[in-house]
Design goal:
By secondary structure, the chain is mostly helical. It has one domain. The chain has 5 helices and no strands. The chain starts with a helix and ends with a helix.
């Protein structure tokens, strides 16, 4: 009888622990998807031929950095914080690349950047 009671107790405890962790992941996934959408829109807006990089670019870049910092600070799953930091580093690298290009961006390059972004975010989400 003690064997059955112990197993039921252990099973219930494991279920409780698993249920506590599971709800956090969907929120984390939503945060990562939101960052992906922001970065893709950023590419759409600034990875265009003859684009001038002015205060609007700097403001959008600052907005993105703030979003990444907030997502990192709000992340409840400790193992996801380095993933978010890597995504932020990728955003920073993409923004720097666009700024260095000085408007010499082809539509093919913009599409390639977006494909790379999607691959990176899919990998971050475990897809």
């Amino acid at each position: 009888m003690n064997f059955i009671a112990r197993n039921v107790f252990l099973w219930a405890g494991a279920l409780l622990i698993a249920s506590c962790v599971t709800p956090n992941k969907p929120g984390s996934d939503v945060s990562i998807e939101s960052l992906r959408n922001f970065e893709l829109k950023f590419i759409d807006e600034f990875a265009v031929p003859k684009k001038h990089f002015n205060a609007a670019f700097n403001a959008k870049k600052s907005e993105g950095n703030a979003m990444f910092e907030q997502a990192i600070a709000n992340e409840k799953i400790a193992a996801r914080r380095p993933v978010l930091a890597d995504l932020k580093a990728q955003f920073d690298a993409d923004a720097a690349h666009l700024q260095r290009s000085r408007g010499n961006v082809s539509p093919a390059m913009a599409n390639e950047m977006k494909k790379d972004i999607n691959k990176i975010y899919d990998h971050a989400l475990g897809r």
